[in-house]
Design a protein that fits this description.
It is built from 12 helices and 14 strands. The structure holds nicotinamide-adenine-dinucleotide. Nicotinamide-adenine-dinucleotide binds next to helix 4.
């Protein structure tokens, strides 16, 4: 029976297909036990697509992604393709999707599970209970601004330059995502820029303030310079709820925040586009880790980041918050019960059960059964 939910699954390379296999088990469980079904198309991306089609993503796959309600992405890349031409690198497949789907808001939650509080490099009392969301503008700013390039200047020196550029609609649309998300969380937004030294920072602060006054005055808004925020994230990360910032600062601050939680193998992300007339947003969900060639094919990868990316998809693309909660609770309980893939074996390992990719996936499904 058609589900009216079109999902494109792109496992990619390295550990991507391995961790996606575990999510497939959860998708099947959700279909059977909670009637949450999808019409799934599966396709190649990255090195796998390059090997078969000579390009890291075909036009046909891109078209399916543009028409899908959501894309669930694994990871791409690996040493096999290191020598590929720049335009054919596996990562270009992901960049093309981000660009053509116009995914301007990158959501990166940083949540610390109680069972893993020791995995953080910060003291447990600083990170225990941490649950923040960083929203990074993803399609503009200094990574895209023109002019950019390098040349030899009049003095004969080589000079390179990039341009940080933001328009008011670009700032407003990503701030709107932050305000809307905050309403479903603790109702607090912190906007970060460098209004003390950058024109784009001044505009960013003005527009965030204006939009807040016009449409979101019920949400608590504050501002901080991005460098001060980098310090505060280490000193008192629990002070924050939703953080919104530009492409460059977001790149750095979201990596910093992810390390508060301990392991790459746990962290999901979502990238969202603008809503269409029906309110549907184009969206892509992926773990923040890469294809981990050092452990690929060995059954060692942690499938939790991919699993939590699927949970984010349930919540943000399909409004299935209760089902997303259930998946997240199952993950939390499995960690509480002591199941650990190799990447999580830090600190005190008394009483933990060392498991591989499939055993971790099976444990999550078993816990879903118990919760149901
Ligand atoms: P990586 O994230 O693949 O791996 C970094 C380290 O973390 C490795 O030691 C790896 O074993 C470990 N790790 C990552 N995910 C894990 C998981 N789920 N479980 C257990 N351990 C895990 O980063 P890298 O090594 O810098 O990059 C490897 C390849 O991935 C490169 O080709 C890179 O370009 C690509 N990459 C792709 C994406 C993406 O697809 N979005 C993102 C980052 C890197």
């Amino acid at each position: 029976m058609a589900s009216n939910r079109n999902l494109l699954v792109l496992p990619g390379d390295g550990i991507g297909p391995e961790v996606m296999n575990e999510v497939r088990k959860i998708i099947a469980w959700m279909g059977k036990k909670r009637a949450v079904g999808f019409d799934i198309t599966e396709d190649l991306v990255g090195g796998a697509a390059l090997d078969k089609h000579g390009t890291p993503i075909t036009d046909a796959t891109t078209k399916i992604a543009l028409e899908a309600d959501a894309v669930l992405f694994g990871s791409v890349g690996g040493p096999k393709w290191d020598t590929a031409d720049f335009s054919k690198k596996p990562e270009r497949g992901l960049l093309r999707l981000r660009k053509e789907m116009d995914l301007f808001a990158n959501l990166r939650p940083a949540k610390v599970f109680d069972a893993l509080v020791d995995a953080s490099s910060l003291k447990p009392e600083i990170v225990k209970g941490l649950d923040i969301m960083i929203i990074r503008e993803l399609t503009s700013g200094v990574y895209f601004g023109e002019p950019r390039g390098r040349h030899t200047n009049a003095k004969g020196e080589v000079e390179a330059f990039d341009t940080q550029r933001y328009t008011t609609p670009e700032i407003r649309r990503v701030c709107a995502v932050a305000f809307e998300l905050a309403r479903k969380r603790k109702n607090k937004v912190l906007s970060a820029e460098k209004a003390n030294v950058m024109y784009t920072g001044v505009l960013w602060r003005e527009e965030a303030t204006k939009l807040h006054k016009e449409s979101y005055s019920d949400v608590q808004l504050s501002h901080m310079y991005a460098d001060a925020l980098a310090m505060q994230l280490l000193r008192a990360p629990k002070d924050f709820d939703v953080i919104v910032t530009d492409n460059l600062f977001g790149d750095i601050l979201s990596d910093e925040a992810s390390m508060l939680t301990g392991s790459l193998g746990l962290l999901p992300s979502a990238s969202l586009g603008a809503p269409d007339a029906t309110g549907r947003r184009k969206a892509l969900y992926e773990p923040i880790h890469g294809s981990a060639p050092d452990i690929a094919g060995k059954g060692l990868a942690n499938p939790i980041a991919q699993t939590l990316s699927y949970a984010m998809m349930l919540r943000y693309s399909f409004d299935l918050g209760k089902d997303a909660d259930m998946v997240e609770l199952a993950v939390e309980n499995v960690l509480k019960a002591g199941y650990r893939t190799g990447d999580l074996l830090v600190g005190n390992t008394d009483g933990v059960k060392k498991v591989g990719t499939q055993e971790m996936g099976d444990a999550i499904v078993k816990e879903l059964d118990r919760l149901a």
